[in-house]
Amino acid sequence: MSHDLALPTLFADRTQAGRCLIEPLARYAGRPDVIVLALPRGGVPVAYEVATALNVRLDLLVVRKLGMPFHPEFAMGAIASGGVTFLNDDTLRAYPVEPALFDAVVARETEELARRERGYRGGRPPLQLKDQVVILIDDGLATGATMRAAIQAVRAQSPARIVVAVPVAPPETLEALYGEVDELVCPLVPERMVSVGYWYQDFPQTSDEEVMTLMGQADQQALCRRAPHD
């Protein structure tokens, strides 16, 4: 795990947070076998900074948190592209949810995941991650449920290496992820997390438009990399 105690205690915004991940990931720069996968929406501005600086591919892995019916911010699990479901068994044991309410949450989030998959990926081909070095990026982790669903979705494609890079996460969440990935990068590890947004001075909701704009810019950069040089 990478920590840097010289970092500011607050990130200005997601752009600055992404720049704080560049140096710890510098050895992956310029490698054709590396792909950065952003978890939309908030992970996209962070991942864009990393992929641009490292000059590597950027794509999306759509993941949706399964929030508790009466406390939507509290994750009881998550779903990811490819039909992957991760359930937080400890949470569900501590706070049992009626099957009908659970199914309603899953149905709603599955519909939203499909909507975002269509909107964000558009004409992009399906992800091909076999034998690739995959760097999964979000704007921070709280329970880690969405990231664990993402890890399962990526692992199903037999990548060469899975790296998780996030600006901020609590130690217990990182500890739970430690055995599931090849490398963890997290510069800011507060003992008391509060929320992801607490560690940002500016933390607005990332819009669909911002996601599409940044991914379009990344596509243009990829075309420039592939274009023959005079």
UniProtKB/TrEMBL annotation:
UniProt-listed Gene3D superfamilies: 3.40.50.2020, PRTase-like (3.30.1310.20)
Domain Phosphoribosyltransferase: 21-186
InterPro entries: PRTase-like, PRTase_dom
Pfam families documented for this protein: Pribosyltran
Annotated transmembrane regions: none
UniProt entry keywords in alphabetical sequence: Glycosyltransferase, Transferase
Record has Metal-binding as a keyword: no
A GO molecular-function annotation: glycosyltransferase activity
Record flagged with keyword Lipoprotein: no
Protein name: Phosphoribosyltransferase
Source organism of this protein record: Pseudomonas alloputida
Taxonomic lineage from the root: Bacteria, Pseudomonadati, Pseudomonadota, Gammaproteobacteria, Pseudomonadales
